[in-house]
C-alpha cells in the first residue's frame, strides 16, 4: 500500500511568536518525507495574516489562510482540514519544531488501513535551559509535552495529543471536526482536551478505528519562561479539570476519564514516591516535585468539580462542525 500524502496545519494567532512560526514552517519544509503542503491558519489577526501572506506569498507549498470560524484553536484546525488536500492532516504547534523524520513515522503508521490517527512525542525546550527542579515529568502535559506515564514505542491509545498529531481524512468524514467551545482561545484560560473529545467521538463512530502514538515522531516544543512558574502550573491544572468535566459531560465519564484513572491511581503515586525518595537522598527538587504532584491533583480535582457543576447547568453540548470539502 502506498503511503499517504500529508498536509500539515499550523494554527497561529500572535506576532509575538513570529520567529517560532518561521522555525515551525522551516522544520516542515526540511522533512525527509516531504509534506504535500503546509497551511498556516491565522486566528482573527489581520495584521499577522497580511505579514505571513507577504512572507510566504511566493513560497511553493505554503498557504496562508484566515480562520473561517469563531475565534479559537478548534475552529482554526477545522478551517485547515477543509482547505487541505492530503489523505492525512497533521497538526504542529506554532511554537514547536519537528525532527526531520516526523512525517516519515506518521506515514508509516498509516500502512494499516484501520489506523485513523497517529500522534508523536513532544519534548519540552525550557526557556531557562533546563527543567525547573520542582517540575514533575508526570505533569509535562501542563506545558503541552509528552508526560511520564505514557507508554513507549508505537502503541495504541485512547487519544493523541493535539500539538503533535495526525488524522486520516476519513476520520473527519466519520466523526466531524474539532468541537468548538472546547480548547484554547488565544490568551484566555489555558483550556484543552479538544483532541480527546474528538478521539472519543471518533472511536464511537468507528469502533474498528485504531489510534496510535509513535514516540519516534518527535517535535521540540518551546516552553516560555512564564510557564516555568508554579502560578502557571496551578492555572493550567485547574483549567484541565474544567476541560475534563466538559468532555466527561459531553461524551460520558466512562470514556472521558478512562485513561485518567490509571494516571491518577498508578503514575502519580509512583511520582510522589520517587520525589520523596529523592528528597531523602538529598537530590535537588525531590520534595518540590512530590508536592507539585499533590497540588496538581488537588487543583485539577477542584476544576473538575466546578466544571461539572457548570456543565450540568449549561448542558455541555458543543457544536461539531461538518467540514466542507471533507465531509459528504
Structure write-up:
The protein has 328 residues and is α/β, with parallel strands linked by helices. It contains ten helices and nine strands. Strands 1, 2, 3, 4, 5, 6, 7, 8 and 9 form a nine-stranded mixed beta sheet that branches. Strand 1 (6-12), helix 1 and strand 2 form a beta-alpha-beta unit. The longest helix is centred in the C-terminal third of the chain and has 29 residues, at 286-314. It is globular and about 60 Å long. It starts with 5 loop residues before the first strand and ends in a 14-residue tail after the last helix. The mean pLDDT is 90.
List keywords for this structure.
328 residues; alpha/beta; globular; 18% strand; 10 helices; nine-stranded mixed β-sheet
Q: What structural class do the secondary elements suggest?
A: alpha/beta
What characterizes the major β-sheet?
Answer: 9 strands, mixed
Tally of contiguous helical segments: 10
Number of β-strand runs = 9
Q: Roughly what fraction of the amino acids lie in strands? A: 15-25%
Overall pLDDT score: 90
- Poorly predicted segments: none
Task: Determine Rg (CA atoms, Å).
Answer: 19 Å
- Following the backbone from N to C, one meets helices and strands in this order, namely EHEHEHEEHEEEHHEHHHH
Give the structure's gist in a few sentences.
This protein is of the alpha/beta class and 328 residues long.
Describe the protein's topology.
Elements: E1 6-12, H1 18-29, E2 37-42, H2 46-56, E3 62-66, H3 73-83, E4 88-92, E5 96-98, H4 102-109, E6 115-126, E7 154-156, E8 164-168, H5 169-175, H6 194-205, E9 210-223, H7 230-251, H8 253-256, H9 258-280, H10 286-314
Parallel strand pairs: 1-2, 1-4, 2-3, 6-9
Antiparallel strand pairs: 4-8, 5-9, 6-8, 7-9
Helix pairs in contact: 5-6, 6-7, 7-10, 9-10
